[in-house]
Each structure stands twice: as C-alpha cells, then as structure tokens.
Amino acid sequence: MTTVEIRLPGRICPVHIGENLIRQTGSFVASLGRARKVLVVTDDNVAPLYLDTVLSSLTEAGLEAFSAVLPHGESTKTLSSLEGLYHTLAGHGITRSDIVLALGGGVMGDLAGLAAATWLRGVRLVQVPTSLLAQVDSSVGGKVAVDLPEGKNLVGAFYQPDLVLCDPSVLSTLTPAFWADGLGEVVKYGCIMDPDLFDLLEKLAPGGRDALMGSMHDIVSACVRDKAKVVSEDERDTGARMILNFGHTVGHAIETCQGYAGLSHGCAVAAGMVAISTLSEKQGLTEQGTTERLVRLLETLHLPVTLPPIPLHDLTAAMGMDKKTFNSTLHLVVLDRIGSCRIHKASTDFFAGL
Ligand SMILES: NC(=O)c1ccc[n+]([C@@H]2O[C@H](COP(=O)([O-])OP(=O)(O)OC[C@H]3O[C@@H](n4cnc5c(N)ncnc54)[C@H](O)[C@@H]3O)[C@@H](O)[C@H]2O)c1
Ligand SMILES: [Zn+2]
Hints:
Blueprint: E1 2-8, E2 11-17, H1 25-30, E3 37-43, H2 47-60, E4 64-70, H3 79-91, E5 99-104, H4 106-118, E6 124-129, H5 132-138, E7 143-148, E8 151-158, E9 163-166, H6 176-193, H7 195-204, H8 208-214, H9 216-233, H10 248-257, H11 265-282, H12 290-300, H13 312-318, E10 330-337, E11 340-346
Parallel strand pairs: 2-9, 3-4, 3-5, 5-6, 6-9
Antiparallel strand pairs: 1-2, 7-8, 10-11
Helix pairs in contact: 3-4, 5-6, 5-9, 6-7, 6-9, 6-11, 10-11, 10-13, 11-12
The structure holds nicotinamide-adenine-dinucleotide (NAD) and zinc ion.
C-alpha cells in the first residue's frame, strides 16, 4: 500500500492506494474514530459490483452502515439529488460524529461530498473513488459540487475528505469509454509535471489495458502525488492549481460547442492538449518534438488527437474570446517540454493556426 499525504494548512488528508483495499474499507473508516453510522452514497452501476463488499466491511468493523443508490451519470449531480440525500441522512439519524462515504466516480464524489460539507454544517467525508478519473483527479483536492441548468459545478464548496481509499483493482470493470476518459487526465500529469510517469506510460501503452492495469498502483500513486503537490500549494485554486488545466481551455470549449453530447471530458482534454502543444511548439514556446511524442502516446491509448469539426470562431468564443472581449488575454498552460509547463498569456492570435 502507498500513502500520499495531502498537506493543507492545519490538517493532513491521507490517500491510501492499494490493490483490494476496498475490502478493508471498514477498518480504515473505524480507525477515524467516534463514528457510529456511515451512509454510503453510490450509483446503480457501482452498487451491484462493490456495495456489498463495502457494507459488509463496515459492519464487520462494528459500524452501522446504510446506503443510498442513485442513478448513474452527470444528470444525478443536481440540487434535487442533494435534497434527496438530506432526507436520507435525516431518516437514518446521521449525526455530527458520523460519516458520509462516496463510493463511485466523480459524480458520486462531488454530490456526496457536497452533502457531507453541508449536512449539519459538515460531517466527515470518506472518498472511495472507483473510476480512473475519480482516483487520479476528482477525489483528491477537496472540490465538491452539483450542477445547475445554467452550468456545471456552480454550487459547491472546498471540503477536504478525512480519508481517500483508491483500489486500482476496481478499475477492471470500467467500460472502455470511461477507462479512456481517465487516461486523458493521467497523460496530463505526465505532460505538466511528471516526465517519469510519461516515460512509464510510453513503455506500457503498446501492451494495452492489461499492461497498464499491471502497473495501475504505480500510475495512480504518481497521479495522486502530483495532484497532492499542486493542491497543497493552492488549496483554493487561486494560482498554482491552474497548471492542472492543461488541455482544458480547449477541451471545455469542445464540450460546450458540442453541448456535452460529443467527446467525453478526457477525450476533449486529449484533443485540447494536442491543439495547444501544436500551436505553442509552432510559436517556439515548446521544445520541438514534444507534440509528436504526445500524439504518439495518445494514439496508442486510443485517445483523440485532432479537434472535432467546430468552426474556429465558435471554439474561441467558447473560450471567452469573442468579439466583445477581443483584446482579452487567456491564461493558457503551455508545455516547456514533456514534464514541465508554465502559464502563457495568449490573445486570439495564438489560435490563428488552429
Ligand atoms: N471535484 C473535482 O475536483 C473534480 C475533478 C474532475 C472531475 N470532477 C467531476 O467528476 C465527474 C466525472 O467523473 P467520472 O468520469 O468518474 O464520472 P461518473 O461518476 O459518472 O463515473 C463514470 C461512469 O463509470 C461508472 N463506474 C464508476 N466506477 C466504476 C467501476 N469501478 N466499474 C464500472 N463502472 C464504474 C459510473 O457508474 C459511471 O457510469 C464530473 O461530474 C466532473 O465534474 C470533479
Ligand atoms: Zn479534467
């Protein structure tokens, strides 16, 4: 087992990474002390696979365990689901000393996290992320939220979990699409700050999912360590954390232009990373050959490397660079080379060759 400590002002949040860790959920949660009851919040894809394991492990550890099983998918990350959870928490008499446990992908983590942040003005939160994206990204860093019809993640909080348990073995049941989605974020860490991780991915990628799964403990640990480092420097996302947005400015614009019905998030980020790297390399901001390496790795991982057919004007408008804000600059994350990045202030001209 690997433990990464996220060091924040006044507290430390441990992230444990280990094969079959999910079976020991109960003893880890019990070791937090004081709790009598645990509400496990999960979705209807994850529940048939892992809920029994988690509930029996909690019960064996002497805790009273309840569950709330919600429909899977982004459409569950709403205020009405949150209200439903409050009624469940009330029904089970969850008190200030009890615990909310998020079991699932980023949707469950964000939703259950916001419930924990607000129920009785805050009860302890345990994250047991089961998607690759949730293990390497959303469960680490303390952002919790729900969506509104007006936009994603508009209602939320910074609320750090007391414990995160990442079990890479559960990733074996992810669908190919969600597997690829998470890999987009994994490659991102390699690009912005972790050349060793990038090398490892290049070595394993030709062996396909089996080869990657064989080293998933190391891969997840590296990503968690990278994110923990960035989050520790900038818990509230006011500066250093911005480098995690590599590929995301263009990626988010793709998702917006396609009405969230086209490329998935990780795939949009992959295409976005290539777009930015191509432009920054052309402009002499990035070491020559970087984009070629990035494209080769993403292709081997079956991630997109070209932008979907969206007019350039629509894309830049979605990045907040329309005519009204013509002279505005965007703070873009560009690579110096694989494993190192910086913030570059770009105007619309930057995107001229797209
Ligand atoms: N809080 C943050 O810092 C942060 C960061 C990035 C993304 N997010 C949020 O995370 C969400 C996306 O996360 P996601 O991609 O994990 O989505 P998700 O929670 O919808 O999970 C993806 C899919 O995989 C299924 N699944 C999860 N684990 C599984 C497993 N082990 N086996 C089989 N199926 C499994 C889920 O049921 C779902 O259908 C978005 O809402 C996004 O806004 C939050
Ligand atoms: Zn992302």
